[in-house]
Write a structure and sequence with these properties.
about 50% strand; about 0% helix; mainly beta
């Protein structure tokens, strides 16, 4: 599977953005999908994940209540709705796909990564 992320940009604190990640191929629904982010000088960190059917979601504590992950298997797309953005959310956001949910949040050896989209939140 190949992934293409989009939707990043510059927003003021308190604002919102919606990221999208479009997947190629006909097997999108077999993948757990999610988002990671990496801020300058920091390690990549898990943000959110969603299971194959879209019935279960998982979030980092830092984004719970503000971010919502969803997927549309008919459109081969996963979304990350980000509300009440804070300057500390500034990072490059990457979508990722893997066939296994176990260990997904560690972000190691996942099947596929998107190219990243920059999110900048000004104070």
């Amino acid at each position: 599977v190949q992934l293409q992320a989009s939707g990043g940009g510059l927003v003021q604190a308190g604002g919102s953005l919606r990221l999208s990640c479009a997947a190629s191929g006909r097997t999108f629904s077999i993948y757990v999908m999610g988002w990671f982010r990496q801020a300058p000088g920091k390690e990549r960190e898990f943000v959110a994940a969603i299971n194959r059917s879209g019935t279960s979601t998982f979030y980092a504590d830092s984004v719970k209540g503000r971010f919502t992950i969803s997927r549309d298997n008919a459109k081969n797309t996963v979304y990350l709705q980000m509300n009440d953005l804070k300057p500390e959310d500034t990072a490059v956001y990457y979508c990722a796909a893997d066939r296994n949910l176990i260990g997904y949040t560690k972000g190691l050896a996942l099947d596929a990564w998107g190219q990243g989209t920059q999110v900048t939140v000004s104070s």
